[in-house]
Amino acid sequence: MGPFLETLLGGLMVGMLYSLVALGLVLIYKASGVFNFAQGAMVLFAALVMARFADWIPQLTGLDNKALNNTLAFAGAALVMVALAWAVQKLVLGKLVNQEGITLLMATLGINYFLEGAGQALFGNDIYKIDIGLPKEPIFLFQNAFPGGVLVNQEDLAAALIAAILVALLALFFQKTPTGRALRAVADDHQAAQSIGIPLDRIWVIVWAVAGIVALVAGVIWGSKLGVQFSLSLVALKALPVVILGGLTSIPGAIVGGLIIGVGEKLSEIYIGPMFGGGVEIWFAYVLALAFLLFRPQGLFGEKIIDRV
Length: 309
Fold this sequence. Notes:
- This protein is mostly helical.
- It has 13 helices and 2 strands.
- It has one domain: ABC transporter involved in vitamin B12 uptake, BtuC (Orthogonal Bundle).
- The radius of gyration is 20 Å and the shape is globular.
């Protein structure tokens, strides 16, 4: 039972990070109808900016306080992501209003490759470290309940708690603030929202900025765990099967889908992997997403679209 619980907890903690990235996809799609294929590149770019700012700030200011330096670096990276959101809306998507969905998808693909290229041009190909002080040593839990206890990585646990807190704050933002209610109104009906005076351009900038901040938090956590490297955008692509599983229009679906895929990956690698020679964790999420596309394309919590003619 102990090894099973270790695998289960590990999957839940990784799944919460998947959910965090998937939230960015869901938020943008709900507010603007755009499937943001650049979310993975946003995670990578935000992590690169954070890592380089964390290195440059002590050199420029002479500050020797790691917590203060990280706070300033995070604030600077957040401003960069907000500026990026404004630029994307004003220079790209704002010019493509009422265009076909495939046109908007291709636009986000272009943004994806632009961000990857800009990251490489500005920061190079080195692997950067982000040290935000997360504990690295594993700990044993439930030692009285199971022989030897359950081994848990403190870094994964702290990362999952940070992701859970951010998800809860986003839920409160959408439910309790005037801006959040305006975002939900836009998600329900763009034309009706415009008719009551909600400015779509401002709302879309806000939602892209929120998605950028979510990408920054996810990038910092993944960068702390894996190092900031260009493969980080591939890790973030796990958000695609998450939103297919949970539903592209559902925030709870992004959370549940991330947890299911995180747990499924870990359990399948341990219990099914030996039959396939390993590597199940790499393709499990995409095979599960394919099954949902065949049998329940709207996902677990997504809205079923019915076209009447």
